[in-house]
Amino acid sequence: MASTSLLPAGDFRTTYAADTTIFPTVTSRNCAIAGVVLLCLAPYFLSQYWISLLIQIGYFGVAALGLNILVGFTGQISIGHAAFFGFGAFSSAYVSTQLGVPAFFAIPIAGVMTALVGLIFGLPAARLKGLYLAIATLAAQYILLDFFSRAEWFTGGSIPASAEPFRLFGYTFNTDRQYFYVVLAYVVLSCLLVTNLIRSRDGRAFVAIRDHYLSAEMMGINLTKYRTLSFGLAAFYAGIGGALYAHYAQVVSNEGFGIERSIVFLAMIIIGGVGSVMGTLMGTAFMVLLPEAMEWISADLRGSVIDDMLSFNNNIAFLREIAIGLVIVLFLMFEPDGLAHRWRQIKAYWKLYPFSH
Amino acid sequence: MNTLFLIQLLVNGLIVGTLYGVVAMSFVLIYKATQVVNFAQGEFLLIGAWVCWWLLTKYQIPFYLGMPITLVFMFAFGVALQVVVLRPMIGEPIISVIMVTIGLSTVFQALMKWMFGTNLQPFPTVFETQTVNVFGLYIQSIYLMSLAVSVLMMAGMGWFFRATKHGLAMRATAFDQQVAQSLGISVENVFAMAWAISAMVSAVAGVVVAVVNGVSAGLSAYGIKVFPAAILGGLDSIAGAVVGGIIIGLLENIAHFIDSEYLHWGNLYEVAPFYVMIIILMIKPYGLFGTRDIERV
Amino acid sequence: MRGMMLLRDVSLAVLVCGLAGAAQAETVQVGQLADYSGGTADVGVPFGQGLIDGMAWANKRGGVTVELDTVDYGYKVPRAVAQYKKWTGGDTKMPAILGWGTADTEALTGFIARDKIPYMSASYSAALTDPTGKSGKTKPAPYNFFYAPSYSDALRAMLTWAAQDWKSKGKPGKPKFVHMGANHPYPNAPKEAGEAIAKELGFEVLPPVQFALTPGDYTAQCLTLKNTGANYAYLGNTAGSNIAVLKACKNVGADVQFLGNVWGMDENAAKAAGDAADGVVFPLRTAIPYGGDAPGANNLKDVSKNSDPTGNAYRPVHYVAGVCTALYMKEAIDWAAKNGGVTGENVKKGFYQKKDWVPAGMEGVCKPSTWTETDHRPMLNIDLYRIRVSGSTDAPLPELIKNGTIKLEKVATIDLPRKPEWLGW
User: Fold this and answer.
1) SS3 C274
2) Residues of B in contact with A315 (CB under 8 A)
3) Which of A120, B65, C169, C347 is deepest in the core (most CB within 10 A)?
4) What is the span of the domain harbouring residue A193?
């Protein structure tokens, strides 16, 4: 995190308020606002397919933000994030169909419900460290998955649960182009909230726990409280992401919430860069576009010599999985700090050109 | 209470449990020697089984030749994996190392499905399988052989660590890497050997399972079961891993017994190990035989 | 890359629009969801191939040219839903979709009814057979079709046979029935209906036993089977994991008559399971297996040549069923073209065109099927076959079939009454 707090010479802050702004410079703030405005206009000139990809990046990004709070800022490990994502999806579907709550309120309610479940899992997790925590979250993943398939009152058991489409003042956000704005709003809100979290007292406590928990404890930070809180927050964002997914697909089945999905979430934050909000979004975009890119490549290569040699056509699904695994391994070997770090390096290169070292 | 049924299940649990124990033993070997959690352990079984099947069916090599060739291949594979992928990761935080092995497991699973298909393939007949009747449970001779092989492997590992120079080197490295290095032990070679031995032992377990049930992607599931076994026994105790594996095997079948007689939930067999693991992590995280982690500042 | 993709999407949309507007020599795009890599790939591959070959053969004989857009969704519902959105997101709607699995078909039922797209699935869940919802047992599925006896009807037929079989063997007392399968919509579909009719027929119904859709070690489940003394066990999964159960139960020494669902057993599975598969009874969707004797058998061989020019491959039962499914879809589309244009609603009406309908050229191969506005159960006359394995199955499959090591012999034909209270359930 040292790289973000290094200010170039001549850039003075004279008040505390100025030092803890969300955006380090005016330019970066303007860029962010311009980016959001550009995205608002996106549905008018992008095809349906791209809008659906952007929506996917949106709801997975919100969930990955939660995981980043847990892994990047607090230094814990969780291999069970997809279970929380699924819980958010199911609870939003349940609340909107069985209890008749409109989707607008169902999404935050699902987030809160998932946060409660996350707190329950966080309490025992606060006692474990490192590897043991990872394995405990692995077990939690399987146990929650088992719960999904057997709690028929909640999830419909093995039959997929249905969720209501998103309605606001009687206007139904049924098509992708309309739902895009809902997701965009949540993404912007989540990013702002998480960035704000880091500059707040609790955020600093998280970072302290990650960097050296013994010293943090000696300074008076209650380890158990903050570790549990971190789990709860991660689960909250996962729940919001899951709820967004539920109202988009309008059908929730417990197949998308297994260990493979947890692995993809971890890949998203690792490839993007742990501990960085922008990195999370970049990593999510990468992991969502990777399978699509494999599809394009295989579609283009279909019928050619390479296709026959490697028998691509029928095995495209395996190629996708191999690509995901390889990408994880290669990034960890050659770019362990992720895309955000690489992006900072590129910015620094241009900023310091021609004196970069 | 249906005692005959329970005893049959317990015998089945014992047999399956020794296999879990063997796989857990290889897992703990890697962890103890190199401090790496190998999420791809199940895939070692899978690769070993597929390679052996391929040698036996494509090239019609007899089993007593194909099996050693498979072992040699797995040895080389383990060394290659350690050198190419894991050596650059020495010193990285634990989350990165875990993710690398997870990534490897994804790659191997998909690669095996690509090369050999998704269907279950029966293993060519290895022995004239006669079944032995133990308490009404017909145990195939291959399972008895696997029991014997597992015990042999455990004994072999024990002897290796106690009586040979290389085994002593591994124990020294596991205890304190820096002191071992200062004594002239090549830590890198120790790491490579740990992975190679682990791969070989897992491959043997994989072939044993494949002979009875056929080769399929389901073999990877052993890689997930290894966690409860290793945690129960203690992550850095090889003997503990074996005991843990046997206990998990027995526990699964006891859970199935309770489920089919009284509870009728249907799948307690699959989830019981995970519940047990959570309980163990809460009460006694270092397992039955693990050493307590001393907090270092 | 982005711009290229955008250009490709736009030009494809224009092309489809243009083609849809053309009156003669029509080409339509029909989506095909297939499982070539997921939990049911062992049966998904031959069925998908059958669909493709059957459609290609039918295209050569004239009428509307149907192009299949095959997508492997790996048996994951979220991917199926995403693919459906991709297909229906454009301006022109697809006239039909060939689906696959139970979970995703049931998930999409509402969408296809809203978008009016006939959906011919490879899932034969009874919940898809009630177009108007008047049975009260399931939600209305006006656009869902399939070519097969529903899982529930097939189980009812097999239980009817089992009751007769028990009596004919002169065994005393009540026979015991147990449902085995994964906790998933596909094996669970006929559970209730099966257990209800079992009780009616005088079976003692044991608690169901679960085993996963993936192959694994199922010794414990077989021990339960042996311990409870089950006589008839329904295997609800596809062949891949059923084989694991069959082998495990043979090792354990459980003496059970296994009843499979249509996807639960085929010639490839018999080869893989060896003599553990001997004696399994399961229904066939077609009047003959591949290589059988019928007026349309030569046409079936022609169809197979589309992907196997040598003509030596042996096609499992799922391939033949896929061929028939494709042909029904093609004839429905052809009917729609002549009766108002190829739209979803007209294709749906095309399914009601004939009673006891057999596609042209497949007499004696495809079983006569009837769909009506109020009842989407196409056949209630169910053929039950038994797999016979009489030796080592190491040789390639065509050889094993030729020398009779693997045989399909017909056991019985059960004619179920078309009861209204059995609709949708």
Assistant:
1) helix
2) 113-114
3) C347
4) 50-352
